Amino acid sequence: MRLSSFASTQTAKEKWDLLSAVCLERKPVIARNLLPIEKEVLSMAQKMEYRLSLKSDHEIQLEKDRERQERIKQGDADDSDMDQASLNSAQDFEDASVEELSKFPFADRITEADKEKDQKSLDRMLDRHLLLVVRQKLGTSSVWILPQGQRQEGETMRQAAERVLAESFDGKVQSRFLGNAPCGFYKYKYPKHIREQDGNSIGAKVVYHYIAPVRK
């Protein structure tokens, strides 16, 4: 028997289960806190940028206002200086902006879901990536994995993924598939005692589809 014929015969005998899995990810909602080294680098970069940057319109107006005030104090001001002095200065605008900022209520980074340790809520750990995992039975073990299920006859891989997702939430989930193409692939062989049984597949080929939750 030729080698190519032998390989074809072996391939024909191999039977794999085709599984579709979903990777449902909530992206970070807020930026994470900087590490100490990152804060040092940021501070250094800001100082360098300030030293090398040109003055803004606001900074130029502040200088003009100071020069006008000096002329008024020395008695060298003309009518235009007096007219401008009666208007709101750049310093007045800056003080009003600082006051408005001080009244702005910043949201807490720690949500109620964080405090209650609600691991089923999307409103937790806002600065982290969250992935949906479910407990499923693989063989005799129960493990935490991405939701997955075997493709049924007549289904496309995406249709199988949509069904798996709906079954995981009893149809109550708002999400969006980001395309038909899978985002990943993985295959593994079943334990030897399962593979040796007649009619059993030798392993599983898992195709992953990327999904984003739709937030109201």
Automatic annotation (TrEMBL):
GO terms for molecular function: structural constituent of ribosome. The keyword Transit peptide applies. It comes from Artemia franciscana. Residues 62-84 are annotated as: Disordered. SUPFAM superfamilies: Nudix. One of its GO terms (cellular component) is mitochondrial large ribosomal subunit. This is Large ribosomal subunit protein mL46. Its main location: mitochondrion. Pfam families: MRP-L46. Belongs to the mitochondrion-specific ribosomal protein mL46 family. The keyword Transit peptide applies. It is found in: Mitochondrion. Keywords: Mitochondrion, Ribonucleoprotein, Ribosomal protein, Transit peptide. Residues 62-76 have a biased composition (Basic and acidic residues). PANTHER family: 39S RIBOSOMAL PROTEIN L46, MITOCHONDRIAL PRECURSOR-RELATED, LARGE RIBOSOMAL SUBUNIT PROTEIN ML46. It comes from the Eukaryota.
